[in-house]
């Protein structure tokens, strides 16, 4: 039996640094295409005896596992090993000496790998020529290693067996870890997609998440059946100018029969919604591992549920929009000046909200949803006027105190109507409309109605609509007044800033008017 690690006195470990007369190894040359298709296993040899490196390469040099060759890296000190481990995160196994620059350099490296690097996947085989320096029982109990070999007993066959066992163990652990990470990415993608509220955002988000689903994916595309019956690309991420013909053929077939398909460089799975046409999600890149396939299918399942939920949301949103328009028409029927006024009001309110958002004001309240919603919600600001008698609502002159008290009830009436209609939904047109109806007559100094709110206690939507409402109402003729000159209206806004109006909202509105050339 040949002792491969105890020749020429090698059982006695040394601490020699590389010297000019030491056998050096030429860089291994490999074909780049072969590496991509069949990447080698990386094994790190850490030993201060150069003959150990040489013999290990001789014994294991032709070894293959799962049709993949082995590539060796060499370090002669624990310090060199740390650098190689940092530069090569895919190292599968390490053949590690104990005594190198210090008596426990190898054991300290084990601690570094497991605790500081947090690397639990790499398989560590401890090889020592001085078992008494690191007794097996103590080392196995105290250090997270996977095998312990005395160099005096390590024959060629035992070294080969230990290496194969380490690679197999690493492969299983890496597969489990890859699957775990893939599942995390699928769940993160599902959570991300669930928060999107437009179909275009959803589709773009889906292909973006799909392209990052597995390591070997380089691009993703989402397809449906086009008007001509062919494949229509709806969204893509990282897609080359000309998608592979084989992938397009499999996409067309999958859209037709709903079956998953995998090629050498692509995989296709199908999203099946309840009431929408099927879509095909294709990953390009590869070669893909067997464990990548269920991840793509799971992502499609989650995405299909997300699309169904998005469709339900869109229907609910459409119903709310229809309700807003119906209530707006009702208010317009009662007050003939409402129609054009609410259209202009919606445009100004949206512009103010976007200007405030761009400035970074009200960061805790203002978001894209707010800016997209306030314009239509502002249509409902005076819907409570349906409860006001026509004799008061359409009186051509000024209202007396009793009539004004009745008129002021429209704010509370509108809020009550809309809160009942929104059914508890806190992020919709009706809920914001209720907020606006109740608060757009409040004043920043607390002297408004119906509740006498002041400052930031007034909902932001109400503060925005208050400025836009007064601006437009004064600028246009009403049955009880003439239209004001633009200069007079702007003077009033500036004069009432800080008392009637929130100064930040006034400043933003003036900036909008300046940008639009409104005579500011």
From TrEMBL:
4-aspartylphosphate: modified positions: 97
Lineage: Bacteria, Pseudomonadati, Pseudomonadota, Alphaproteobacteria, Rhodospirillales
Record's keyword terms, sorted: Phosphoprotein, Plasmid
Domain Response regulatory: residue ranges: 42-166
Limits of the HD-GYP domain: 316-520
The protein's name: Two-component response regulator
Superkingdom, natural source: Bacteria
GO biological process assignments: phosphorelay signal transduction system
UniProt xrefs under Gene3D superfamilies: 3.40.50.2300, Hypothetical protein af1432
